[in-house]
Specification:
globular, 256 residues
Length: 256
């Protein structure tokens, strides 16, 4: 997404919990001479320590990071796209992991958006929330992950209503993604899911375009819109169809 935003001439602040990954992106952007990238890193290479885009933070750290953005001369787009790692397996009863993942995948989004509201109201900007089809339709082996994505839909859809009632011109774009061929996703589902993944670069461009157009929701791939909108039609039949895309031998099948 950073590369796409840069191509459109944006001035970008990058945040990451892994400094090496952040620096890699910065080097590519500077080599291409698209713009003078301003980078922000608040954690070391192992991901330890305080990093507001992992959700493991206090409010003051988020406020500090947001002040950096505003120091650029304003904030037009806040793109929320981080996730915590979660096992791709049947529910094991690990409530502590669910609590941690909710903090990373949901609460930190709320904290960042809350800190950015004043700046975004001034610029009539946008909040771009990267979510998943798992936040519209529940699928196997994603219990905790799905919970965080459903929470994002609920919070930001409600916030959109409140902003409209207040006359505050901030757009909220919810990005509903299907299976994307990121290294992380592929490492989790390889041999377990009988679906074709879609290119991450195209998904990133769809997110950028959706945010720029101030769309209410975008779906990538486009077929995801049918799954999203038809989620309450014949739910038992729908769930049966979904289960047919899973290799239960590889995933372990039933609960322990």
């Amino acid at each position: 997404m950073a590369y796409h935003y840069a191509k459109f001439g944006a001035e970008i602040a990058l945040t990451a919990r892994r400094e090496a990954a952040l620096q890699k992106v910065q080097v590519v952007l500077c080599e291409l001479a698209w713009f003078n990238v301003k980078n922000v890193c608040v954690a070391n290479d192992t991901g330890a320590g305080v990093a507001y885009d992992t959700g493991e933070c206090m409010g003051k750290d988020i406020d500090t990071g947001m002040a950096t953005y505003v120091g650029f001369g304003g904030l037009d787009y806040l793109v929320l796209n981080h996730i915590g790692e979660s096992p791709y397996e049947a529910w094991s009863g690990d409530v502590e992991h669910t609590r941690w993942l909710m903090q990373v995948n949901f609460v930190s989004y709320v904290q960042l958006a809350s800190s950015a509201l004043s700046a975004l109201a001034e610029s009539k900007g946008s909040i771009v929330v990267v979510s998943s089809i798992n936040g519209k339709v529940a699928t196997p082996y994603t219990t905790s992950y799905s919970a965080t994505k459903f929470a994002l839909d609920g919070f930001f859809s409600s916030l959109r209503q409140e902003l409209a009632m207040q006359g505050t011109d901030i757009a909220i774009t919810l990005c509903i993604l299907g299976l994307i061929d990121t290294d992380y996703a592929m490492s989790r589902i390889r041999g377990k899911v009988l679906m074709t993944p879609y290119p991450a670069s195209e998904a990133a461009l769809a997110i950028v375009k959706g945010g720029t157009s101030r769309d209410r929701e975008i779906h990538y791939p486009w077929q995801a819109i049918f799954i999203s909108h038809a989620r309450d039609w014949y739910p038992e039949f729908r769930d049966w169809i979904i289960r047919g895309f899973y290799n239960t031998t590889s995933t372990g099948g039933a609960h322990p």
